[in-house]
Amino acid sequence: MQRQVDLDFDEGRYLKLLTNLIGETEHLQNNPPKFIPEEDRAVKHVVDALQPYTKQNGGLLTIEHVTYVEGRGNLIIEYDNDVGCSTTTQKGTVSFIGSHLDVVPANPESWERDPFKLTIEGDNLYGRGTTDCLGHVAMITEMLIQLAEKKPKLKRKIVAVFIAAEESSKIPGVGIDMLLKDGKLDHLKAGPVYWVDASDVHPCIGTSSAAIWALKCIGRLFHSGLPHKAINSVELAMDAVTHIQKNFYQEYPPHPCEIVYKYEAPSTMKPTQIRTAEGSVNQIPPWAEAQGDIRLTPFYNIDECIQKVEGCVAKLNEDINQLVSGDRGPCSKYEISLPEGDFKGELEILWEGEVFRGIACDLNSDGFKALDEATKEVTGSSEPYSMTGSLPLVGEMQEAGFDIQICGYGYSSVYHSDNEYCTLSQMKIGMKVFNQILNKFNQ
Length: 443
Ligand SMILES: [Zn+2]
Hints:
By secondary structure, this protein is of the alpha+beta class. The protein folds into two domains: 11-207 and 358-440, Aminopeptidase, CATH 3.40.630.10; 210-354, Alpha-Beta Plaits. It has helices at residues 11-22, 40-50, 130-150, 176-181, 233-251, 257-260, 302-318, 366-379, 394-399, 424-440; strands at 61-66, 74-79, 93-100, 119-121, 124-126, 157-163, 192-196, 204-206, 209-218, 222-223, 268-276, 283-284, 287-296, 335-338, 341-344, 346-356, 385-386, 403-407, 421-423. The strands form six sheets. The chain has a six-stranded mixed sheet with strand order 1-2-6-3-7-18. It has a four-stranded antiparallel sheet with strand order 11-13-9-16, covered by helices on one side. Strand 14 and strand 15 form a beta hairpin. The protein binds zinc ion. The site of zinc ion has 5 residues, from helix 3.
């Protein structure tokens, strides 16, 4: 292959930018209302690093700082150096998006190092956001500087998009959701879109849809010495969750495509939290609430799944006593007639936060082939994998016509964890993979 692009990696410059970025992470923590990030603190360092290479300064980069909420900007950076033979109106693109400027909170007390400062120990670079995702922001920035310095002529425009507000969807209207709505990314349909926020070098080819649910179970409070006068909301919660799960697993068994995409787990619906009305052990509590999530592989439709779960709950409410198995003794009933009146248990299902849509990346697209081949060329092998975790908006973007492919060069073992780190050597591998991708799209 003819190598039109041959980028180096300036370690000193990379570490300087990453030091600046990690130094801001105390103010980039995202978990509202306690932590609302100020992404512009990170934006400033990236812009400072790129400034000498902008068109205004005689270079080849354009920078657009796009802000929807004050202090919480996104960055769109383009490298365009035409080969000069293009007569087509719409130029192709290769884009690197999804690397985000916010981080999940870190608790300094449980870290062995200062999470808000870059600590370099040999090849290891410690600090909140090194793997997820500022290590990528610094790597892609270094790639843009390398392009701007070496000025290779490329048939396509190279676009990088650094986004705000990735780690929490509690405050909408800040990041990629707005960039999409605003049409700021439409032109990226003209080429592969690499979402750079995964890890472990190999291509990530699938994620899952995710929906968070809460099942409120209303019973009747009474002295536990008179259980025939109560409706036990804890038992109702247990039986209702069992029934709903049974239904779910009948509708959503392991899907044959999960093997092709190498998912380690199939679709699941399970409770992860449970709470009840406060009281004492000799009271039967009037309400209990189970909470949990649904993780659905992308071969099933999450909207339809939510409707089915709601339908299942509605049917239970029509005849709540169908949940009585007898296994909980003769006094455990969900509909009772007493001299003082008739009482009935009730269920209510609520969905919390935004629904994430999973994605099965297109394995036949040029975008995937380039990533797969580039990974092989750089590391000797490419082992695509899928995860039952979720990423925001990738599913919607694929539906809207983007060729989304997912990759990343940190470590999944330290995602959102204490003592998060990345390595300089693996970030360099990432840059080499991107270098190869740029070459492939310049044939
Ligand atoms: Zn991330």
